[in-house]
Amino acid sequence: MAQIHFPLGVSAILIDLDGTLLHTAPELAEAANRMLRDMGRPAASQDLLMSYIGNGISWLVKRALTGDMHAEPDTCGPHLFARDSRCPRNADVAS
To answer: Which of 3, 10, 11, 23 has the greatest CB tally within 10 Å of its CB?
Structure first.
């Protein structure tokens, strides 16, 4: 078998798994529901959570926590971003 030589050394390949190459939306929705359950919140429908996918995991988390496409979660809520420096009780934490 012939070897393929690339002009540059390849040490890693990154793949965005939000559905571009693989249909991973159901798994991302399940992960979001596990997060919600772990926080004592009710689960959301898979269809709703799948509609929140896009622009990275931080947006999926924000959307799952708020139920809104553009809202910011309360960073001082219990178990939520507990070390967030924007929360007055964590003012000593660097951003």
So the answer is: 23
